[in-house]
Amino acid sequence: MLHVGMDLCRTRLDICVMDEEGEVIEEGAWPPDADGLAKTVRHLRKSKQPVAAVIESMNGARFVHDTLELAGWAVEIADAQRVKGIAPLACKTDRIDARVLAELSRRDLVPAIWLPTPGVRAERELARWRLHLVRHRTALKNRVHSILLAFGKPCPVSDLFGVKGRQLLADLGLAEPWRGHVEAALRLIDHLDDQIAELEEELRSDGADHPYVPLLMTVPGIGWVLAYTIAAELGDISRFPSPKKLAGYTGLCPRVYQSGGTDHRGPLRKNGPRYLRWALIEAAGHACRHPAYRDHYQATARRLGRNRGKRVARVELARRLSEAIWHMLTNGEAFNPYSQPAKAAA
């Protein structure tokens, strides 16, 4: 068997081909597009040996993975951070990275990441695209509010973009070019409203058949949008053997620096999907008023002080929600904070 390590960048794909004895057979670089990958496959097909390939996780790695897998290769995507822990380098180049990945493949030490199925990828894309559009709409609304503040115009209505608010904007008589900018922003906001409404209908339709969404909606603070987002980002809950593993995957756990008698907790790791982290933080903002979490949340916020107490308490509550979600989805049960948690899988 041949072992191929690949290091991807925008303009090229560095490749190192190694045999079972660890001897480097070939090194080179190919374009990271479909034609370049097809040329690589044809070139190595001459050896008439099976090929195992490894590429680090980054943008574009899944395209390389899917293309080469369809060509008959056994391809894995390696966790870049864990690769650094296994094989730290004093000198780091693309060529050396490719050689290290080939060696890890030969020794069967690849820290491979879980790859979602095409269906899960599609679900994630729908939820992420909706959030992307909502953020653009929010930025436009903030822009309009900033223009009003710049001209000392008060906003006496609760919704500046409702019927009364738009009438107020029409009667302000702003000078150009600010008037034109406000009108253009309103047109874009209307267009985004239509796009988001269509997308939410699609999400509702898909979420109705999802096995996780009805269970997630029983969690305090989680509506159908957050439920769909969390379900899409989690994928298959069985890949997490314990609730602690799921909490670690969210990236909501602090960094730990421990040596001898020193134990220091740093900032959040943020190593998981940021959309999952966002959804859990949003849910925690509402769940903090639920009787099951309210007293603990308020006590934590008071203990840590005014400046950071609420932020840290919210993150801690988001971690607790992730652990509750693991028990719910693993057992197929609705949310019940007073039930005994199930034992983690062995």
Describe the structure.
- This protein has 346 residues and is of the alpha/beta class.
- It has three domains: 2-106, 2-Layer Sandwich (Nucleotidyltransferase, domain 5), CATH 3.30.420.40; 118-209; 214-331, no CATH class.
- Helices cover 53% and strands 13% of the residues.
- The strands form two sheets. The chain has a five-stranded mixed sheet with strand order 3-2-1-4-5. A two-stranded antiparallel sheet has the order 6-7.
- Strand 1 (2-8) and strand 2 (13-18) form a beta hairpin.
- Helix 9 runs antiparallel to helix 11 (274-287).
SSE blueprint and pairings:
Blueprint lengths: L1 E7 L4 E6 L5 E7 L3 H12 L5 E6 L4 H10 L3 E5 L1 H7 L7 H13 L11 H33 L12 H9 L6 H30 L5 H4 L7 H11 L8 H7 L4 E6 L2 E7 L5 H14 L6 H11 L4 H23 L15
Parallel strand pairs: 1-4, 4-5
Antiparallel strand pairs: 1-2, 2-3, 6-7
Helix pairs in contact: 5-7, 5-9, 7-9, 9-11, 10-13, 11-13, 12-13
Q: H/E order of the elements? A: EEEHEHEHHHHHHHHEEHHH
Low-confidence sequence ranges = 340-346
Structure summary, number of beta strands: 7
Q: What form results from the Cα inertia axes?
A: globular
The first-to-last residue Cα distance is 34 Å
State the gist of this model.
With 346 residues, this protein is of the alpha/beta class. The chain has helices at 34-45, 61-70, 80-86, 94-106, 118-150, 163-171, 178-207, 213-216, 224-234, 243-249, 274-287, 294-304, 309-331, and strands at 2-8, 13-18, 24-30, 51-56, 74-78, 254-259, 262-268. The strands form two sheets. Strands 3-2-1-4-5 form a five-stranded mixed beta sheet.
